[in-house]
Amino acid sequence: MPLNDAMPQFEAARPMLMGLAYRMLGSYSDAEDVVQDVAIQWMKADHTAIDVPSAWLTTVCTRKALDVLKSAQRTREQYVGDWLPEPVHTNPASGNLQTPE
Predict the structure, then answer these.
(1) From the CB of residue 20, how many other CB atoms can be counted at a distance below 10 Å?
(2) DSSP-derived 3-state class of residue 85
(3) Which of 25, 41, 82, 92 is deepest in the core (most CB within 10 A)?
(4) What pLDDT is stored for residue 1 in this prediction?
(5) What is the DSSP pairing of strand 89-90 with strand 97-98?
(6) Phi/psi of residue 35, each to 5°?
(7) Nearest 5 degrees, angle CA 74-CA 63-CA 7?
C-alpha cells in the first residue's frame, strides 16, 4: 500500500491511539510520544502484510506504552544517587524540631 493511502488510515486511528496511550500512561506528553513512535513505525511497515490496520496500530501502541511503563519502573528502581533522609517537620513558632513519629 502506498504511503499516501496509509497515512489517512493512521490519522483516522490517531484519536483512539491517543486515548489508549493516555489511559495506559496517565500522561498526555508520554501518550503523544508513543503515538508519534507508532506513526513512524507505521510509515516503515510493509502494509501489504497487514490485514487489519486498526488492530496492527492498536497492538503496536499498546506494546510501546508498556515499554514506556517498564522503562519508568526500571528508572525508579535503579536510583544510584545519594540517599536522602525524610524531611524534618519544623514548627516555626516554637523553634523545636518535630519528627513525624
Answers:
(1) 20
(2) coil
(3) 25
(4) 52
(5) antiparallel
(6) -65, -35
(7) 135
What would the pLDDT profile of 11-46 be if each residue is shown by its tens digit? 999 999 999 999 999 889 999 999 999 999 999 999
Domain spans, the chain:
3-77
**What's the CATH fold of domain 3-77?**
Rna Polymerase Sigma Factor; Chain: A (1.10.1740)
Ramachandran class of 10: left when φ > 0, alpha when ψ lies in -120 to 50, beta otherwise: alpha
Grid cell of 43 as nine digits:
510509515
How far apart CA 13 and CA 53 sit, in angstroms, is 9
pLDDT of residue 21: 94
- Span 43-83, pLDDT tens digits: 999 988 999 999 999 999 999 999 999 987 766 655 556 66
Question: H-type helices in 1-101, by residue range?
Answer: 3-25, 28-44, 53-77
